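Dig into what follows:

_____
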Amino acid sequence: MDHLTVLLEDEVEAIHRTTLCILDEVGIVLTQPKAREILSGEGAKIQGDFVHMPPDLVERALGLCPNTVTLHSRGGKSVTLGDGNLHWHNMGGAPYVYELSTASRRPATLQDVRDSALLLDALDYVDTVVPTFTPQDISPALMHIAMYRVTLSNTSKPVQGPGISTAREVRTIVQMASVIGDPKKVLSLSVSPISPLTFRDETVLALTEIAEWRIPLAPLPCPIAGATAPMSLTGALVQQNAELLASIVLAQSIQPGLPIMYCGRLSVMEPRTGLSVWGGVETGLASAASVQLGHRYGLPVNVYGFCTNAQELNIQNGYERTINAVIPALAGADELSGIGEMESGVMSSYAQMVCDNEITGSIHRLKRGFAIDEQALALEVIAGVMRDSRQFLDQWHTVQTLRQGEIFIPKLAERRSWEEWDRAGRQDFVARAQQEANRIISTHEVLPMTDRQERELDELLQKADETTHHGP
C-alpha cells in the first residue's frame, strides 16, 4: 500500500527552506558556555543569547545521522526503527491512573510503573516500552531514575528511557542500563527543548551527556500551535522542525554519527480554554506531515499515535485516538506512541492499554492492504463453486486465506448476535479489556533478571537517592 501524503514534495521543501532561514536568521536561545563554544567552532554565529546556525552546518549535521536506530532488550529482542515496519510503544509519564471501577482518577505510584510494564510486556503489538507513569509517591528529583529502574525489571522488551531533565539523571540511567548490557544498545533517551526555540542550560547539559555516552537520542519538542508556536499548522511545523534540527546539530557536533530519532509532539491550543488539544484531527495531520519531514532527512520517525482529550473510555476517546493513529500510520511512521494515553497525556489506564493493543492489530491489517494476484482473484474457485455447491464455506481457498490473515479477528470487539451477547451478560469492550488487564497483571511472568543485576540496580537507585538528599 502506498503511503498517505499530506504534503506535496515542494511543500516539504518549503518547510525545510523556511526552517533553515529560522535557524540562520532568527537563531535559537542557547546560553550554555560549553555548547556555545562547540557550536561556534562548527561555524555557528553567536549574538547575545542567540546562536545562529547557517544552512551548511545544518545540512552537514543531518548527513552524519544514521538512517536507522536499533534498540535491544535484555531478553535478546531487538527493534529497528527505519526498517520499513511500523512499531509501537506506550505513552510515557502520566501522573494519574484512571480507575474504571469507580470512573475516577488517582495519583500514580511506583507500583503502577511496575504493573504497567508487566502488562505491556505481555501485549502482542507493543514493541518497545517506556515508563508509563510518573509515580507521585517518589520525590521529583528521583522520579525518572526510579521509573527506569522498575521498568527494567518488569519487561524483557527494549526499554526506551523516560524524558530526561538533567545530566545527573543521564549518568545514573546509563549506569543502570550497563547492568543489563551495552548502554549504547539497550537505551535511548529523550530531551525536550522549550518552545519556542529555547534550549535551557539544564537541557543542553543533559543532551551533551547523552551524546558523549553515544546513547541514541530522541529530541522531543512539544510546541502548542497558538500558544508556544504559530497558530497555523505549517508555521508550527516549521518551528518544531527548527527545534529538532537544532538539537541534531548540537548532538552531531558533540558526537558525529550519533543515532537520532526524529520525534514530533506538536499539539494545538483549544481557543475556548487555552488548553493543549491532543485529540483533534489536527494532531494526526501534523504527525503525518512530521513523518514526511523526518523521512526527507532519512531519519526514523516517532510521532503521536493514540491520543485523546477524553477523560473516559468513551466514543470520543475511541474516534479521536483511532483517527490520530491511522493517519501517521498510513503516512509511513516508523514508530507511534500513545498506547494507554488518556486526557492529553495526563492519565492512563490498564483497560486503555488492552483496548489499544486490539486497535493496533486493526491498523496493522489496514496498512497491509490486500493482494491482487491469481490466488486472490479466485477465478477458478468461483467457477468451481458455481458448478457445484454455490457456497464457499467448504473450500480450501477459504481456509487458506483465513490462515494467511485476510480477516483480522479481534479478541475484545463484540461480533455475536444480540441474543448471544444478551445471554453472555452484555459485557462490553471496555469491561473485557479491564478483565484481561487484571488477568495479565496477576499471572504474567517476565523473564527474570539475575539476583546480582537486581542488587546492582537497587544500589544505584539508593546511591541516587542519597546524592539527591545530601549532594555529591
User: Anything to note?
Assistant: The first strand starts at residue 28 and ends at 30.
